[in-house]
Every structure is written in structure tokens, then in C-alpha cells.
């Protein structure tokens, strides 16, 4: 894929991330991680970084910013999911299709709940406080895994459908032009 279509696809993903964060949705069920994963597999390493970064940054301009240390952990967790996908971009199959979003959601859960414990005041800075932070995050983990798997399915499925029918269209067009 040349640079122009990659840029357009990246811009579309950023727009989806922004819209997905702004519209009402269940907690942690947004397209951010899935867009990062898709970008890492189909666009490249830079897109795996910049799609979630720009989508989160622009979305937070509307939603409001929060604690800088926690914000950085959230952003880096989303970027890490994209880079993980980039690192496994040559691995195909249903296993990777499911493993990438689960790994990304798990990384996000572990990192962000540790950050809430570390940088916040809601939990004592003890091992039991860390465990309490992880327990409190459990209700948000399920929706994130479900959302990430569903959004990854939508992104990859739609991309496969478009490329399949786009190739068929161009093949038919070429056949019709040669027939003239």
C-alpha cells in the first residue's frame, strides 16, 4: 500500500476513535485499542503509534484531560497494543485475531490499574492496596475485552470485504476495458 492510502486509512481510524469515544458507550468499550491493532497490522509501526495517540488526544480535548501520569499510562497502553500487533503482523489466523485484542486489553488493565494505585489516593500504597485496585478494575475488563474483540472483528472484516470487492471490481473493469 502506498503512502496516500495509508494516510487516508490512518485518518479514518483516528476519526473512528474520536467518534467512538464521544458517543455514548459502555465503560471501556471503545474502538481505540482495536484501531491501534488494525493500524499496526495493516498500515505500519508509525500508524500503530499515531492512530491511538491522535485519536485519544483529540478525544480528550472534548472530554477533558485528567491526571498527567495516569493519562500517559493510558496512552502508552493503547500504543503498546498497536506495537504488539505490528510485531505480530505476519502471524495470521483466528488465534491471532483473538489473541491481539485480549493481550492489548490485559496490558491496559494491568498498567492502568497499577497507575491508579501508584498515582492516586484511593488505595493505600501497599500490596493489598494494589490488589484492591486490580479487583476494582475487574468490572471494566470484561467490556473492554468484548469491545476490543468486536471492533477488531469489524475493522479486519470490513477491510477484507472492501479489498476483496475492490479487487473484483478492478478485475471486472479491466476485463470490460479490454473487451472494447
TrEMBL record:
Q: Which domain of life is it from?
A: Bacteria
Instruction: Give UniProt keywords alphabetically.
Output: Membrane, Transmembrane, Transmembrane helix
- Database matches in Pfam families: DUF6580
Keyword rRNA-binding among record annotations: no
**Signal peptide position in this chain?**
none
Transmembrane regions: 6-23, 64-86, 98-120, 140-162
Annotated protein name in UniProt: Rod shape-determining protein MreD
Instruction: Please name the source species.
Output: Candidatus Lloydbacteria bacterium RIFOXYC12_FULL_46_25
Amino acid at each position: 500500500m502506498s503512502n496516500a492510502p495509508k494516510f487516508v486509512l490512518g485518518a479514518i481510524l483516528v476519526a473512528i476513535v474520536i467518534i467512538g469515544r464521544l458517543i455514548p458507550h459502555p465503560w471501556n468499550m471503545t474502538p481505540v485499542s482495536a484501531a491501534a491493532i488494525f493500524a499496526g497490522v495493516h498500515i505500519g509501526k508509525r500508524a500503530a503509534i499515531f492512530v491511538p495517540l491522535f485519536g485519544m488526544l483529540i478525544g480528550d480535548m472534548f472530554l477533558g484531560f485528567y491526571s498527567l501520569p495516569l493519562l500517559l499510562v493510558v496512552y502508552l497502553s493503547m500504543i503498546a497494543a498497536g506495537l504488539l500487533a505490528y510485531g505480530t503482523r505476519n502471524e495470521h489466523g483466528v488465534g491471532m485475531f483473538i489473541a491481539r485484542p485480549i493481550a492489548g486489553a490485559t496490558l491496559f488493565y494491568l498498567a492502568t490499574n497499577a497507575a491508579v494505585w501508584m498515582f492516586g489516593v484511593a488505595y493505600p500504597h501497599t500490596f493489598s492496596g494494589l490488589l484492591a485496585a486490580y479487583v476494582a478494575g475487574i468490572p471494566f475488563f470484561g467490556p473492554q475485552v468484548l469491545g476490543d474483540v468486536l471492533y477488531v472483528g469489524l475493522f479486519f472484516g470490513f477491510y477484507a470485504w472492501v479489498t476483496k470487492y475492490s479487487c473484483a471490481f478492478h478485475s471486472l473493469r479491466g476485463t470490460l476495458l479490454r473487451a472494447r
